[in-house]
Amino acid sequence: MTQVSRAPRPEPGAPFPGEWSWLGPPAEWTAGPSSGELRLTAGAGADLYAMPAVREVDALPALVRRFDGDFRLQTHVTVEDGDTFADAGGLVVLTGAGSVKVCVERTTSGSWAVVTVASLPHSDEAMGPSLPGPAVELLVTRQGQRFAALFRTPVRTPADGDWRFARTFTLPDSREVWAGVFAQAPLSDRCTAVFRGLSSSPVPLRDRR
């Protein structure tokens, strides 16, 4: 399991507001060409997953920052060259006791879906709604001890509404919380995720249904 006690590596060149650091293995990345854009490429086998006797991997490249108290963090993510099952990009929340990933991920059928993985400490994976393609807006929010993950598609109908619920969870030992973006390529040679319009706020999302 990735633990936040592992020293984060400061990244002064991060294209996002605030102080950001790397966790996990080194990864290829570039900022731009648009302002506030990050292109992150995970190498072969990159993942964070813990299921004893099945699969245990602690190698997720993530650009994260520390959050104290309530917050919300949101970004638009597009997965590029994600041709293999489980190729993904998204948001990750980490504490000293575990982690939660919410991502746009390639499914076994070749389509795309919102997938969440809570590793507390063993991984509990849940596939959410299908997506029309490898692009979505993701949001994680914290109020007190409760966290929630939500999403919305770039093209929405009135029936879709705004943010749609993906998962709610609590993280033990959430005094020190790190959250940010990641890319993974558990079963492929590489996968690139592009993040745009990332923003954060100390005001949590009130409606988390």
UniProtKB/TrEMBL annotation:
Residue ranges the record marks as coiled coil: none
Pfam families on file: DUF1349
Region span, Disordered: 1-24
Residue intervals passing through the bilayer: none
Superkingdom assignment: Bacteria
InterPro entries reported for this sequence: ConA-like_dom_sf (IPR013320), DUF1349 (IPR009784)
UniProt protein name: DUF1349 domain-containing protein
